């Protein structure tokens, strides 16, 4: 836990000015709280001795001093609370952005075993626990420590015997705190994990609401959500059960201390003549003394909860970024679009080979098509070009430069993907087409749409280019989404375009429109196309047949048909 706390302190250091002022205000507040009972005790002593005119004047001055102290307490409490919260929430906001930014730069393999909802929970929910740590725990811990130490010193100066009696329950309280921390933290970890799983389930179900309704699985999915919901609740209740035992135990031990002080204080008053003023002072300070000790229960509970959330956030921030710019990486310039695979192999992990010794050259402006059964590595091959994964062997060159030695930003700036599962953002059609070129003019957006054969469809919509596409483009048909994605790629003017099953889920008429759009850019861009419909790649300059991770055939459409191999069989099946 110490290691985690040290790691967290490094995150908060950028807001040290706010924290320093908040801590100084906290110390000043503690000083005020320690001074006020002393003045009240002195006033009681004056009254006990009998009031004189001079005594009344002194009491008047003390009363004014008390009013000033209480006004200062308002000021210091405001500065302490507000500045600590301000620093904490700035930290939360900063961590949310940094956690999201870290996820943006993670390689695609990182997300294979992650749920989107769980990652969202880490960004939104778990980062919020930092506010608990930095706005409450740290300031309160400082206040409690200083108050406890200051009061103990004051009590020792009043009567050291009674002060030692006051401390009798402290070891038991701290021992119970250590036991509580060890017992409760695992339940808070489970609770945070279950909350992430609940968010993941909700995200999946809301994204798949059409399938749930179509297959009549509403009742089943409600039960699943309910189970995830109550798994989180059960873990939280386990933690709260321990808290429910710990809090009263601390209060009981503190009460025993008070009873000992009252009983032993009466004995000292009887035997040693302890003054009424000292007894009053002792009782006034007793609340301040046991307040921090009793507050230890809340602090320990909050610490375990915030640490559980902090660990989940730090697990993301500290995760290694496997694909990043090498020290010698430089930007790509004047890219023509020649792509070379030089004996490239790739595996997911150590035991799942996907590509084996793949070699080819695609000249600038050529169209290279990849065909073959599902799951043989065609999509993976295109993802290697953009460095979403690193090959386990061999080299990939763009215009003769090893892509490992160029900056990721400049590499991906020169490649535009059009995927089978087209993703559109919840904005207007114009915003989606211009997504990769934020400063594109409306004329440029319309020109790209015309080239992608989607302009007429857009103009037929009531709001034209201002039409909202809905989440993931749900308000558009599959063919319209594909052509919007092609327009987006055309507008970017990248020298390389990757088409991954761009016509897989559209009708014949839409397929012809997409083919016309592709034909419009063929020859001016290097195109890497994955296709199961061979009709869409008849005019490709080179076709690679991939089977079991290897290139088994290569050539033009006519050459491969004459070869009489796998491609020829696929062509005959589709022709019939």
TrEMBL record:
Keywords: ATP-binding, Nucleotide-binding. The keyword ATP-binding applies. This is ABC transporter ATP-binding protein. It comes from the Bacteria. It comes from Aristaeella hokkaidonensis.
């Amino acid at each position: 836990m110490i290691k985690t706390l040290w790691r967290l302190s490094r995150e908060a250091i950028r807001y040290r000015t706010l924290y320093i002022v908040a801590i100084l205000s906290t110390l000043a507040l503690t000083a005020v709280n320690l001074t006020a009972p002393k003045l009240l005790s002195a006033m009681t002593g004056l009254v006990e001795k009998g009031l004189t005119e001079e005594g009344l004047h002194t009491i008047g001055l003390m009363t004014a001093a008390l009013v000033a102290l209480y006004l200062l307490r308002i000021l210091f409490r405001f500065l302490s609370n507000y500045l600590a919260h301000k620093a904490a929430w700035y930290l939360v906001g900063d961590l949310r952005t940094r956690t999201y930014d870290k996820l943006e730069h993670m390689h695609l393999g990182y997300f294979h075993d992650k749920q989107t909802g769980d990652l969202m929970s880490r960004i939104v929910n778990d980062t919020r626990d930092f506010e608990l740590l930095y706005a409450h725990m740290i300031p309160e811990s400082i206040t409690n420590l200083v108050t406890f130490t200051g009061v103990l010193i004051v009590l020792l100066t009043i009567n050291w015997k009674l002060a030692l009696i006051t401390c009798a329950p402290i070891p038991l309280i701290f021992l119970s705190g250590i036991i509580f921390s060890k017992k409760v933290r695992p339940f808070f970890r489970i609770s945070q994990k279950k909350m992430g799983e609940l968010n993941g389930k909700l995200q999946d179900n809301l994204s798949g609401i059409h399938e749930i309704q179509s297959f009549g699985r509403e009742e089943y999915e409600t039960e699943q959500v309910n189970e995830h919901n109550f798994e989180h609740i059960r873990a939280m209740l386990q933690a709260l059960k321990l808290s429910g035992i710990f809090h009263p135990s601390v209060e009981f031990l503190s009460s025993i201390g008070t009873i000992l002080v009252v009983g032993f204080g009466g004995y000292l008053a009887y035997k040693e003549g302890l003054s009424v003023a000292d007894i009053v002072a002792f009782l006034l300070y007793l609340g301040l003394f046991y307040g921090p000790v009793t507050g230890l229960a809340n602090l320990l509970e909050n610490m375990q909860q915030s640490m559980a959330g902090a660990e989940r956030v730090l697990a993301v921030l500290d995760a290694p970024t496997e694909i990043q710019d090498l020290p010698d990486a430089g930007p790509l310039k004047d890219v023509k679009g020649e792509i070379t695979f030089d004996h490239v192999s790739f595996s997911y992990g150590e035991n799942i080979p996907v590509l084996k010794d793949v070699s080819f050259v695609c000249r600038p402006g050529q169209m290279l098509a990849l065909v073959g059964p599902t799951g043989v590595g065609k999509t993976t091959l295109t993802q290697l070009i953009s460095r979403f994964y690193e090959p386990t062997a061999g080299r990939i060159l763009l215009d003769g430069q090893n892509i490992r030695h160029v900056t990721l930003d400049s590499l991906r700036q020169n490649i535009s993907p059009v995927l089978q599962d087209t993703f559109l953002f919840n904005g207007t059609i114009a915003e989606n087409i211009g997504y990769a070129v934020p400063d594109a003019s409306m004329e440029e957006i319309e020109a790209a749409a015309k080239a992608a054969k989607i302009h007429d469809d857009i103009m037929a919509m009531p709001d034209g280019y201002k039409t909202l596409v809905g989440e993931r483009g749900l308000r558009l048909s599959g063919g319209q989404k594909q052509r919007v994605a092609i327009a987006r790629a055309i507008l970017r003017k990248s020298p390389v375009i990757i088409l991954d099953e761009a016509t897989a889920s559209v009708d014949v008429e839409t397929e012809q429109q997409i083919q016309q759009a592709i034909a419009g850019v063929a020859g001016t861009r290097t195109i890497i196309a994955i296709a199961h419909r061979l009709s869409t790649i008849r005019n490709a300059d080179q076709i690679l047949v991939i089977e079991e991770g290897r290139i088994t055939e290569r050539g033009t459409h006519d050459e491969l048909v004459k070869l009489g191999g796998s491609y020829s069989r696929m062509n005959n099946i589709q022709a019939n």
